[in-house]
Amino acid sequence: MAASYYFARQIGCGNWASVWIVQPKGSARGQVKAMKIVHRASQSGALQRFNALLNEYKVLAGMPRHPNIVCFEDLVLSPSYACLVMPFYDQPMTVCLPFAACRVYFARMAEAVEWLHKHYITHNDLKLANTLVNRGAGEPYGQPVLVDFGFARNHQPCYGTNFISNESWGTPEYLSPERSVGDAHDERLSDIWALGVSFFEMATGRTPFEKKNEVFTTPEAREEYYRRTIQGKWYTDYDLPFEIEDLCRAIVRVDPQARPRIPEILEHDFFQDAAATDSAGSSPRSI
Protein backbone atom coordinates (compact mmCIF):
# COMPACT_ATOMS: atom_id res chain seq x y z
CA MET A 1 0.00 0.00 0.00
CA ALA A 2 2.76 2.42 0.93
CA ALA A 3 4.23 1.91 -2.53
CA SER A 4 1.08 3.22 -4.20
CA TYR A 5 -0.41 5.76 -1.77
CA TYR A 6 0.63 8.56 0.56
CA PHE A 7 -1.33 8.37 3.82
CA ALA A 8 -2.46 11.82 4.98
CA ARG A 9 -4.57 11.25 8.09
CA GLN A 10 -7.18 9.00 9.62
CA ILE A 11 -10.69 10.45 9.43
CA GLY A 12 -12.74 7.66 10.93
CA CYS A 13 -12.47 4.51 13.00
CA GLY A 14 -15.13 2.06 14.10
CA ASN A 15 -15.69 -1.56 15.06
CA TRP A 16 -15.49 -2.68 11.44
CA ALA A 17 -12.80 -0.56 9.79
CA SER A 18 -10.76 2.63 9.79
CA VAL A 19 -10.89 5.26 7.03
CA TRP A 20 -7.95 7.34 5.85
CA ILE A 21 -7.41 10.18 3.42
CA VAL A 22 -4.80 9.04 0.91
CA GLN A 23 -3.20 10.42 -2.23
CA PRO A 24 -2.19 8.11 -5.07
CA LYS A 25 1.53 8.45 -5.75
CA GLY A 26 2.16 10.27 -9.00
CA SER A 27 -1.19 12.07 -8.92
CA ALA A 28 -1.65 15.84 -8.97
CA ARG A 29 -1.37 17.68 -5.67
CA GLY A 30 -4.70 17.73 -3.83
CA GLN A 31 -6.11 14.71 -5.67
CA VAL A 32 -7.12 12.76 -2.58
CA LYS A 33 -9.13 9.60 -2.07
CA ALA A 34 -10.69 7.80 0.86
CA MET A 35 -9.32 4.40 1.85
CA LYS A 36 -11.26 1.98 4.06
CA ILE A 37 -8.91 -0.44 5.83
CA VAL A 38 -9.49 -3.66 7.76
CA HIS A 39 -6.85 -5.81 9.42
CA ARG A 40 -6.49 -9.38 8.15
CA ALA A 41 -6.12 -12.06 10.81
CA SER A 42 -7.35 -15.56 11.55
CA GLN A 43 -9.57 -14.57 14.48
CA SER A 44 -13.32 -14.76 13.75
CA GLY A 45 -13.92 -11.04 14.26
CA ALA A 46 -11.15 -10.01 11.89
CA LEU A 47 -12.30 -12.57 9.34
CA GLN A 48 -15.85 -11.22 9.54
CA ARG A 49 -14.60 -7.68 8.92
CA PHE A 50 -12.49 -8.81 5.98
CA ASN A 51 -15.43 -10.67 4.43
CA ALA A 52 -17.66 -7.61 4.84
CA LEU A 53 -15.12 -5.42 3.04
CA LEU A 54 -14.70 -7.97 0.27
CA ASN A 55 -18.49 -8.21 -0.01
CA GLU A 56 -18.75 -4.45 -0.56
CA TYR A 57 -16.41 -4.67 -3.51
CA LYS A 58 -17.92 -7.79 -5.05
CA VAL A 59 -21.55 -6.67 -4.72
CA LEU A 60 -20.98 -3.41 -6.59
CA ALA A 61 -18.29 -4.60 -9.00
CA GLY A 62 -20.65 -5.65 -11.79
CA MET A 63 -23.26 -2.94 -11.35
CA PRO A 64 -23.37 0.09 -13.66
CA ARG A 65 -22.38 3.24 -11.82
CA HIS A 66 -24.93 5.60 -10.32
CA PRO A 67 -24.13 9.16 -9.11
CA ASN A 68 -25.72 8.50 -5.71
CA ILE A 69 -23.96 5.21 -5.00
CA VAL A 70 -20.31 5.00 -4.01
CA CYS A 71 -17.97 3.61 -6.65
CA PHE A 72 -14.86 1.69 -5.65
CA GLU A 73 -11.73 2.55 -7.57
CA ASP A 74 -9.34 -0.04 -6.21
CA LEU A 75 -9.17 -3.10 -3.97
CA VAL A 76 -5.77 -3.48 -2.33
CA LEU A 77 -4.83 -6.72 -0.57
CA SER A 78 -1.70 -7.39 1.45
CA PRO A 79 -0.91 -10.19 3.93
CA SER A 80 -1.91 -7.90 6.80
CA TYR A 81 -4.57 -5.56 5.40
CA ALA A 82 -7.46 -5.25 2.94
CA CYS A 83 -8.32 -1.80 1.60
CA LEU A 84 -11.01 -0.24 -0.54
CA VAL A 85 -10.22 3.01 -2.36
CA MET A 86 -13.07 5.35 -3.25
CA PRO A 87 -13.75 9.05 -3.86
CA PHE A 88 -13.35 11.29 -0.82
CA TYR A 89 -16.50 13.13 0.28
CA ASP A 90 -15.83 15.40 3.23
CA GLN A 91 -19.44 16.15 4.22
CA PRO A 92 -21.53 13.69 6.23
CA MET A 93 -25.30 13.79 5.91
CA THR A 94 -26.78 16.06 8.57
CA VAL A 95 -30.25 16.39 10.11
CA CYS A 96 -32.93 19.04 10.70
CA LEU A 97 -32.30 20.30 7.18
CA PRO A 98 -34.30 22.86 5.22
CA PHE A 99 -37.24 21.16 3.57
CA ALA A 100 -35.96 22.06 0.11
CA ALA A 101 -32.74 20.17 0.87
CA CYS A 102 -34.70 17.24 2.27
CA ARG A 103 -36.63 17.02 -0.99
CA VAL A 104 -33.44 16.81 -3.06
CA TYR A 105 -31.82 14.26 -0.77
CA PHE A 106 -34.99 12.19 -0.34
CA ALA A 107 -35.49 11.87 -4.08
CA ARG A 108 -31.87 11.07 -4.92
CA MET A 109 -31.59 8.47 -2.15
CA ALA A 110 -34.83 6.81 -3.26
CA GLU A 111 -33.61 6.72 -6.87
CA ALA A 112 -30.33 5.14 -5.72
CA VAL A 113 -32.19 2.42 -3.82
CA GLU A 114 -34.39 1.76 -6.84
CA TRP A 115 -31.23 1.43 -8.97
CA LEU A 116 -29.80 -1.10 -6.53
CA HIS A 117 -32.98 -3.16 -6.51
CA LYS A 118 -33.23 -3.02 -10.29
CA HIS A 119 -29.78 -4.62 -10.37
CA TYR A 120 -30.76 -7.27 -7.80
CA ILE A 121 -28.89 -5.69 -4.88
CA THR A 122 -30.23 -4.89 -1.42
CA HIS A 123 -28.28 -2.59 0.90
CA ASN A 124 -29.54 -3.88 4.27
CA ASP A 125 -28.01 -1.06 6.33
CA LEU A 126 -29.54 2.14 4.96
CA LYS A 127 -29.20 5.03 7.41
CA LEU A 128 -27.94 8.61 7.42
CA ALA A 129 -24.63 7.53 8.95
CA ASN A 130 -24.07 5.52 5.75
CA THR A 131 -24.82 8.52 3.52
CA LEU A 132 -22.30 11.19 2.53
CA VAL A 133 -22.75 14.36 0.49
CA ASN A 134 -20.88 15.07 -2.74
CA ARG A 135 -20.56 18.86 -2.72
CA GLY A 136 -18.77 18.83 -6.06
CA ALA A 137 -21.82 17.57 -7.92
CA GLY A 138 -22.73 21.01 -9.30
CA GLU A 139 -26.04 21.34 -7.41
CA PRO A 140 -26.91 23.80 -4.62
CA TYR A 141 -27.24 21.10 -1.97
CA GLY A 142 -24.86 18.61 -3.52
CA GLN A 143 -25.76 14.97 -4.05
CA PRO A 144 -26.23 12.26 -1.40
CA VAL A 145 -24.05 9.20 -1.85
CA LEU A 146 -24.91 5.81 -0.33
CA VAL A 147 -21.88 4.07 1.20
CA ASP A 148 -21.01 1.08 3.40
CA PHE A 149 -22.23 -2.02 1.56
CA GLY A 150 -20.82 -4.53 4.04
CA PHE A 151 -24.28 -6.03 4.68
CA ALA A 152 -25.45 -5.75 1.06
CA ARG A 153 -26.60 -8.84 -0.78
CA ASN A 154 -26.67 -9.83 -4.42
CA HIS A 155 -29.94 -11.49 -5.44
CA GLN A 156 -29.16 -12.26 -9.07
CA PRO A 157 -31.79 -14.69 -10.47
CA CYS A 158 -29.17 -17.43 -10.69
CA TYR A 159 -29.01 -17.48 -6.88
CA GLY A 160 -32.71 -18.31 -6.61
CA THR A 161 -33.38 -16.13 -3.54
CA ASN A 162 -36.03 -13.88 -5.12
CA PHE A 163 -34.89 -11.19 -2.62
CA ILE A 164 -36.09 -13.33 0.32
CA SER A 165 -33.91 -13.92 3.38
CA ASN A 166 -34.10 -14.66 7.12
CA GLU A 167 -31.18 -12.40 7.99
CA SER A 168 -31.49 -9.88 10.82
CA TRP A 169 -28.21 -7.97 10.57
CA GLY A 170 -28.22 -4.20 10.30
CA THR A 171 -28.58 -1.23 12.64
CA PRO A 172 -31.41 -1.84 15.15
CA GLU A 173 -33.07 1.57 14.87
CA TYR A 174 -33.51 1.12 11.11
CA LEU A 175 -34.54 -2.55 10.97
CA SER A 176 -38.05 -3.30 9.79
CA PRO A 177 -40.13 -5.36 12.25
CA GLU A 178 -39.92 -8.48 10.09
CA ARG A 179 -36.14 -8.19 9.72
CA SER A 180 -35.61 -7.50 13.43
CA VAL A 181 -36.85 -10.96 14.34
CA GLY A 182 -35.34 -12.81 11.38
CA ASP A 183 -38.62 -13.73 9.72
CA ALA A 184 -38.51 -14.63 6.04
CA HIS A 185 -38.84 -11.27 4.31
CA ASP A 186 -38.31 -9.39 1.07
CA GLU A 187 -35.11 -7.40 1.62
CA ARG A 188 -36.26 -4.73 -0.82
CA LEU A 189 -39.21 -3.91 1.44
CA SER A 190 -36.92 -3.83 4.46
CA ASP A 191 -34.70 -1.35 2.59
CA ILE A 192 -37.77 0.79 1.93
CA TRP A 193 -38.64 0.81 5.65
CA ALA A 194 -35.09 1.96 6.49
CA LEU A 195 -35.34 4.64 3.81
CA GLY A 196 -38.51 6.02 5.40
CA VAL A 197 -36.94 6.06 8.87
CA SER A 198 -33.93 7.87 7.41
CA PHE A 199 -36.17 10.44 5.71
CA PHE A 200 -37.90 11.22 9.00
CA GLU A 201 -34.58 11.49 10.82
CA MET A 202 -33.19 13.82 8.17
CA ALA A 203 -36.13 16.20 8.67
CA THR A 204 -36.39 16.01 12.48
CA GLY A 205 -33.11 14.79 13.91
CA ARG A 206 -34.38 11.46 15.21
CA THR A 207 -36.33 8.39 14.13
CA PRO A 208 -40.14 8.32 14.46
CA PHE A 209 -39.99 5.77 17.30
CA GLU A 210 -37.70 7.54 19.75
CA LYS A 211 -38.19 10.32 22.22
CA LYS A 212 -35.77 13.19 22.42
CA ASN A 213 -32.30 12.16 23.68
CA GLU A 214 -33.19 8.47 23.96
CA VAL A 215 -30.53 5.84 23.27
CA PHE A 216 -31.02 2.13 22.65
CA THR A 217 -27.83 0.48 23.82
CA THR A 218 -29.20 -2.29 26.05
CA PRO A 219 -31.22 -5.37 25.08
CA GLU A 220 -34.16 -4.01 27.10
CA ALA A 221 -34.05 -0.66 25.30
CA ARG A 222 -33.84 -2.34 21.90
CA GLU A 223 -36.83 -4.53 22.80
CA GLU A 224 -38.81 -1.41 23.70
CA TYR A 225 -37.87 0.16 20.38
CA TYR A 226 -38.99 -2.98 18.57
CA ARG A 227 -42.34 -2.91 20.41
CA ARG A 228 -42.89 0.62 19.21
CA THR A 229 -42.15 -0.33 15.60
CA ILE A 230 -44.67 -3.17 15.53
CA GLN A 231 -47.26 -0.99 17.27
CA GLY A 232 -46.60 1.92 14.93
CA LYS A 233 -46.08 4.13 17.98
CA TRP A 234 -44.60 7.39 16.74
CA TYR A 235 -43.25 10.34 18.71
CA THR A 236 -43.92 13.27 16.39
CA ASP A 237 -43.48 16.31 18.62
CA TYR A 238 -42.32 18.34 15.64
CA ASP A 239 -44.12 20.89 13.51
CA LEU A 240 -43.64 19.16 10.16
CA PRO A 241 -45.43 19.98 6.92
CA PHE A 242 -48.22 17.50 6.33
CA GLU A 243 -46.59 16.23 3.13
CA ILE A 244 -43.39 15.13 4.91
CA GLU A 245 -45.12 13.29 7.74
CA ASP A 246 -47.62 11.76 5.33
CA LEU A 247 -44.77 10.54 3.12
CA CYS A 248 -42.91 8.97 6.02
CA ARG A 249 -46.02 7.32 7.45
CA ALA A 250 -46.80 5.90 4.02
CA ILE A 251 -43.36 4.29 3.85
CA VAL A 252 -42.86 3.17 7.46
CA ARG A 253 -45.72 0.67 7.65
CA VAL A 254 -45.65 -2.46 9.76
CA ASP A 255 -47.19 -4.56 6.97
CA PRO A 256 -44.38 -4.94 4.38
CA GLN A 257 -46.84 -5.40 1.52
CA ALA A 258 -48.48 -2.08 2.37
CA ARG A 259 -45.24 -0.14 1.85
CA PRO A 260 -45.08 1.78 -1.42
CA ARG A 261 -42.48 0.89 -4.01
CA ILE A 262 -39.96 3.54 -5.05
CA PRO A 263 -41.90 4.83 -8.12
CA GLU A 264 -44.94 5.37 -5.87
CA ILE A 265 -42.80 7.19 -3.30
CA LEU A 266 -41.48 9.58 -5.94
CA GLU A 267 -45.04 10.39 -7.04
CA HIS A 268 -45.97 11.60 -3.56
CA ASP A 269 -47.22 15.18 -3.17
CA PHE A 270 -44.06 16.10 -1.27
CA PHE A 271 -42.09 15.84 -4.50
CA GLN A 272 -44.78 17.41 -6.67
CA ASP A 273 -45.71 20.51 -4.69
CA ALA A 274 -42.36 22.01 -3.80
CA ALA A 275 -43.53 25.59 -3.32
CA ALA A 276 -46.19 24.72 -0.76
CA THR A 277 -43.93 22.57 1.41
CA ASP A 278 -40.93 24.89 1.27
CA SER A 279 -43.05 27.86 2.33
CA ALA A 280 -44.04 25.99 5.50
CA GLY A 281 -40.64 26.68 7.01
CA SER A 282 -36.95 26.11 6.61
CA SER A 283 -36.62 23.37 9.22
CA PRO A 284 -38.81 21.59 11.81
CA ARG A 285 -39.63 23.28 15.10
CA SER A 286 -40.06 21.34 18.32
CA ILE A 287 -43.51 21.82 19.85
Automatic annotation (TrEMBL):
GO terms for cellular component: cytoplasm. SMART domains: S_TKc. Keywords: Kinase, Transferase. Residues 5-271 form the Protein kinase domain. GO terms for molecular function: ATP binding; protein serine/threonine kinase activity. The keyword Protein transport does not apply. The keyword Lipid metabolism does not apply. SUPFAM superfamilies: Protein kinase-like (PK-like) (SSF56112). One of its GO terms (biological process) is regulation of autophagy. This is Kinase-like protein. It comes from Jaminaea rosea.
